[in-house]
Specification:
The complex is a heterodimer of chains A (230) and B (242). Chain A has 230 residues and is α+β, with helices and mostly antiparallel strands. Helix content of chain A is 24%, strand content 33%. Chain A has six helices and 17 strands. In chain A, the strands form four sheets. Chain A has a five-stranded mixed barrel with strand order 9-10-11-13-12. In chain A, helix 4 runs parallel beside helix 6 and helix 5 packs antiparallel against helix 6. The longest helix of chain A has 16 residues. The termini of chain A are far apart. The relative contact order of chain A is 0.12. With 242 residues, chain B is α+β, with helices and mostly antiparallel strands. Chain B has one domain: Ribosomal Protein S5, domain 2, CATH 3.30.230.70. Chain B contains four helices and ten strands; from the N terminus they run E-E-E-E-H-E-H-E-E-H-E-E-E-H. In chain B, a hairpin with a 4-residue loop joins strand 8 and strand 9. In chain B, helix 1 crosses helix 2 and helix 2 runs parallel beside helix 4. Chain B starts with 25 loop residues before the first strand and ends with a helix. In chain B, 48% of the residues are buried. The chains are: A alpha+beta (230), B alpha+beta (242). Chains A and B meet through loops of A and strand 3 and helix 4 of B.
Amino acid sequence: MSEHFESRDLVIPGDILFEGRIRTGDNTYRRQGKVCASRIGLVEYGRGIVSVIALEAGYNPLVSDLVVGEVIDIELGRWFVDIDASVAAVLNVPDAIDAPFRPDIVMPEILDVGETIVAKVVDLDRRRTPILSILGRDLGKAEEGFIIRITPSKIPRLIGKKGSMVNMILKETGCEIVIGQNGRILIHGRTREQEDIVVKVVERIEMEAHTTGLTNRIQEYIKHMKEGQD
Amino acid sequence: MSPKPKKKKKEWKRVDDREWNELRPIKIESGVLPNADGSAYIEMGKNKVIVGVFGPKEMHPKHLAKPHMAVLRCRYHMAPFSTDPRRSPAPSRRDTEISMVMRHALEPAIFLERYPRSAIEVYAEVLEADGGTRCASLNAASVALVDAGIPMSDLVVSCAAGKYDGRLILDLGDYEDKMGEADVPVGYMPKLGKITLLQMDGILSPEELEQCISLAMEGCEKIYELQRESLKKKYGTEKEEK
């Protein structure tokens, strides 16, 4: 029974984190009774559990995630949406227009290939294909704005504790921001300058996601940039 | 091309004045390609290799996808300007072989079963070649895979050992590779203690082969430390700001 690292140490795949009886958390695996890291990240020793907060990770869709995706294909009765997961997500007609599918529906008129949607993952089917829905508040086709991408593992930092970070950015810049759990961020501001600030802020958060006291530093950073523009 | 060997009788030194168990200077950098999910650049002596990793993403063509696991695809390619004389950019027999060898060497380290029906792609491009490019490519590829956030059980490290001038040596250069008696590239997972790549070119006695493998594994341990450093460097400098 021993911890091999300090909490919040940087670990690399293969590093032995713990020997003995303990549950394995995120991004870890068990090998010969030892718990090892499977991704690069910061190790966390909780009560009876060892996990790694990944610094680099692809998007793993989970039910109730908000995602920003692009329609890539249309089939009879469903759209395929690229959400940066290992497989494309499916959007069925009843989840898009709140009506059953009828053969006289012209699907490209509702959503065409290349269009961006803000959607929610409502289910994962038996083959773990994500099923989306665009019925609901603030969901649907994105008509305005542009998209930037960051590593999905850093999205929690961008949102902050109970949304503290994103609310601060919204208040300070006045932009509309939709943060998809899949790492795509939809930004729409009134002026180009506002949008520029958000892009720079998001880039900075991605760079410094693993450091502490980030929200306050970002707030000062925004103020500093605003003064520069005036 | 490497310089011709100096003929010193007293103290036996290698073509490039290295000790018999000395590696070439190695430089590894991770996250060099902004458009790839993960990437790495390695300089191993005069070898220069850049590796990009994409995925896990949907498998195309779809009929090649496996229902229970991801498919790892590797492409090893030498740039036309990487050798003297210029080489054809078309994939050669050798490129195809090394692509396959890389795939087999990396597969045991990756949790492929976590991404059914998808593909992970590894592209290694050799910008300058000086013997041991498959080892350099593998070293860079495992760093790039970690940088892409692909779940792995361990890093794969690779290093060659061989026989030149009747002596066993570590990390053969181009001249030693071509003029030497044997070349044994080894791929190794240091934390798991498993060998994932083992090839041999030339003639060695069984004892010599065993010595070569353990020599290459020693070299792998040294390279492993450099790989770790390169991965930590990306975050280390920012961590100090705390």
